[in-house]
Amino acid sequence: MCGIIGYIGKRNAKEILLSGLKRLEYRGYDSSGIATINDNHISCTKSVGNISKLEKKLKKKSLPGHIGIAHTRWATHGAPLLKNTHPHFDQSREIAVAHNGIIENYDYLRKKLFKKGVRFLSDTDTEVLAHLISQYYKGNLSDAVRSALKLIEGTYGIAVICCKNPNEIVAAKKGSPLIVAVGKNEMFVASDIAATLRHTKKIIHLENDEMVVMRRNSFDIKTIHNKSVTKKIEEVSWNIDMIEKGGFEHFMLKEIHEQPESITNSMRGRIDEKHSTSKLGGLLVFEDKLKDIEKIVITACGTSWHAGLIGEYMIEDIARIPVEVEYASEFRYRNPILNKQTLVIAISQSGETADTLAAIHEAKTKNATIMGICNAVGSSISRESHGGIYLHAGPEIGVASTKAFTSQVTVLLLLALHLGRMRNTSKKRAKSILKELKTIPSKIKAILKEENSFKKIANLYSNKNNFLYLGRGYNFPTALEGALKLKEISYIHAEGYPAAEMKHGPIALIDKDMPIVVIATSDNVYDKILSNIEEIKARNGKVIAVANKGDKKIKKLADHTIYIPKTIDVLNPFLTVIPLQLLAYFIAVKRGCNIDQPRNLAKSVTVE
Ligand code: M6R
């Protein structure tokens, strides 16, 4: 996710901001920039790509000053280009803003400002904020920021400077993390303690709707409604390594735990309560075509392919449009049957996977309409698609995909609802799905709280050489994903199967040494799954069941039962995948594997 650091003190701001940005690199970013005030003027340097490029530019430019703000950007609105890199300015270049988060109503505000004569230099949501602050500015920066924030819908962590107020930084938070760090004759603001830790261990956590005005030797914290708040200065005891991973041992574990938030971010601003549907801005370019599509082909690789399989079930179930799911590497070479009425959906976290990109090229030659579902904004797949939906899951650092998967499933569900509501899905059904979808983040939090019990099970089976994963219906793709996670990071051989297929072959493998993870939620195929478990037990297999809370039948049959909250069938993958991610993680930890960088794997597979 994007990173912010701001500094005010006696030292050279540029040096401190640059070293702070380097500390934020681990979060993933595509561009960075620094702005400082000197002689009542703001100077700014930005660069696309690595911070080393920014550093190179800064060597040629002095950028003096003892106050400044800086940002690492992970694109959400607008491609990773220089014009979209933060800090952003108002028209007079007197106010500079660095922002994390998403301004949901930016389009509305942008149009309003445009009518007032404001001209925009970037495609970002953030620039709107710089112009709004400027419109309210009458000499007092915090008053102007407060007034502007009242108009904002969405999330923000911001740091603002104004060359007419060269002795203060104003910062505010809603939904995006922000801390104030208190030094000796100097103050910092940052999205992450990692950026300021080498200067001071004294920090204050800002809460939502709080705003700080920082000077070199003092600070005031109020709510954005101008009420004073008293805050405690805390002393951090963590070291830098622990902080970068948010206190987690590995990025993968951190990302597993981020899922309640990343799923919320994927939904943010995309639900149309009034019409019980979803609003997906990136599809407007082919909204008319969507009405006429006769077939959908989803193409992807690895985990994204598993998300695609869930997408198939969702779209066919909710929107009643036929869907095929193709491995991109096969699709590109097999002369697929496509035409103008086919919608091809390419799913890719990185947006750079060579096979998926080639599949898009193949589909284009056959006149299909291409929709990209990517996490990385401005990536090759997002650029080459006719339209698309971004995940907004934040950067995923661990090679094993976790939070991108659940965000892909979120976006596919929103798409299924959108297509369904354009056709025959009743408002009542869509409404009940959306209502339940909103409970998913808190249900995932409840599952995560139980992780120690998953760890105990993992430790019992970490020395096994083979695993089977079984599921039916919506739980079948999750079984595939659970097996892939285990393979990738623990190097244990694992296979996912539709549970009923077991008797057509895999049953021959079952003996006392074979652990079998069975997803057995209380759904329309529950009784059938019970019979499958009986078949396994008759052959002495060890069953680790994932079942709904209160299910006593499963407890009697299985060797271990992992309980998860109940949800509707269509949303089961969101909940069932969490214990499977954690099982894989804990088994791999016990085996001493390299969790975040498993052998032979790359985060982005840009070769065929
Ligand atoms: O970036 P993409 O989503 O296109 O990547 C596709 C696969 O390479 C990826 O999902 C891979 O299977 C992951 N390592 C799974 O954890």
Describe this structure in words.
With 608 residues, the chain is α/β, with parallel strands linked by helices. The chain has three domains: 3-242, Glutamine Phosphoribosylpyrophosphate, subunit 1, domain 1; 246-438, Glucose-6-phosphate isomerase like protein, domain 1 (Rossmann fold); 448-608, Rossmann fold, CATH 3.40.50. The strands form five sheets. The protein has an eight-stranded antiparallel sheet with strand order 3-2-4-1-10-9-11-14, covered by helices on one side. The protein has a six-stranded antiparallel sheet with strand order 5-6-7-8-12-13, covered by helices on one side. Strand 20, helix 13 (380-384) and strand 21 form a beta-alpha-beta unit. The mean pLDDT is 94. 5-amino-5-deoxy-1-O-phosphono-D-mannitol binds at residues 301-304, 348-350, 353, 356, 399-401, 488, 601, 604-605.
